[in-house]
Design a protein that fits this description.
By secondary structure, the protein is an alpha/beta fold. Helix content is 33%, strand content 28%. The longest helix is centred in the first third of the chain and has 18 residues, at 13-30. The chain is elongated.
């Protein structure tokens, strides 16, 4: 059974807040440098230097210190909602929570961005409040979503951060389960999976399998990675879980049709996996069927192999709002690289 880092099966805002703060605290415990990089890139200006600084021979008005250890003061006040239920008066009241910090941010988080008119109304109130606070630094309002926050955290991680990547993956899955991340844009995402030893089987039978208890964000495309490159891409047409319970096979078609051909392919996959020392028969696995895997060469140019999975926004990579046919995507990716 998969161990979860975050609470499940609750709909209250305080659980969403607690899980989000737990995610950030786990990042801080894992790497303060990456935590502060996240803040600097998403909350504060380039001049923000939150980490401890050590100075020698610091001059004061009437003396020179041998040394000084300092840290800039900052405060991020957070308000979360399960939808765009923010109220300007409530947010305006939150402004009283700030003191004389050098950097002051009010962050509002919800599954969807704040409505433009509502945000404009609050920004007007915020400006009026900041005008009364001079010479104190202004309070900055940042409106974001749970998905954008997860993506921002992903951006400060790299392939070596497999421990933190697992935490982030579970947070994403919690957000999907509780509806904090919407799935309407799944059509633009490609999920990369490692497929070194099974690549030939995957591409021959247009199927990829993974343990059923591994969470995943909805995505329409599957990319198979081997030897420093994504070698094949296919559009998913069915997702089916299967396990041999000892008294027979149990199937669950999550979407797409459970056909006899697909049952036969699952059986072939179970037999093929034995050649690589995998027992996928008695442990429930999820089988992603694609219309067809097309050969590509979407190369990774940074050092080290990825540790597991990664999500790509194909509309950003290909710089288009409308994706072409999968075969054309495969050809276009040959001209692109990633890190």
């Amino acid at each position: 059974m998969k161990i979860h880092y975050f609470q499940r099966y609750h709909q209250k805002e305080n659980v969403a807040t607690a899980n989000t703060m737990l995610l950030l605290s786990r990042l801080y415990a894992y790497s303060p440098a990456k935590f502060f990089r996240l803040l600097k890139e998403n909350c504060f200006s380039e001049s923000f230097e939150p980490e401890l600084t050590f100075r020698l021979q610091e001059k004061g008005e009437n003396s020179v210190l041998d040394a000084a250890i300092m840290q800039e003061s900052f405060k991020i006040a957070v308000e979360t909602k399960l939808s765009d239920w923010f109220y300007a008066q409530q947010l305006e009241n939150h402004l009283q929570a700030f003191g004389n910090q050098t950097y002051r941010v009010l962050m509002t988080i919800a599954p969807e961005p704040m409505a433009a008119a509502k945000r404009a109304d609050f920004e007007k109130r915020l400006q009026a409040y900041n005008d009364t606070q001079r010479p104190r630094s202004p309070i900055v309002h940042i409106n974001t979503t749970f998905e954008k926050l997860a993506n921002a955290l992903s951006d400060v991680l790299d392939d070596r951060d497999d421990e933190m990547q697992a935490v982030l993956e579970d947070y994403r899955q919690y957000c999907y389960d509780d509806g904090l991340i919407t799935v309407s844009d799944a059509c633009k995402y490609m999920r990369m999976r490692l497929a070194g030893t099974t690549l030939d089987f995957n591409t021959s039978y247009n199927v990829y399998y993974d343990k059923a208890d591994h969470g995943f964000r909805p995505h329409d495309y599957l990319g198979l990675y081997s030897q420093k490159s994504i070698r094949a891409i296919g559009k998913i047409c069915a997702s089916i879980t299967a396990v041999d319970t000892g008294t027979g096979m149990t199937y669950n078609a999550e979407f797409g049709e459970l056909t006899e051909d697909r049952k036969n392919t699952i059986e072939l996959a179970m037999k093929d996996a034995v050649n690589y020392g995998y027992d996928i028969r008695t442990t429930e696995h999820r089988y992603f069927f694609v219309e067809k895997f097309y050969e590509t060469d979407f190369r990774k140019i940074s050092p080290r192999a990825p540790m597991g999975t990664r999500i790509f926004d194909l509309t950003q990579i290909l710089e288009t709002d409308s994706l072409p046919e999968t075969e054309n995507i495969a050809e276009l990716l040959k001209e692109k690289t990633w890190e």
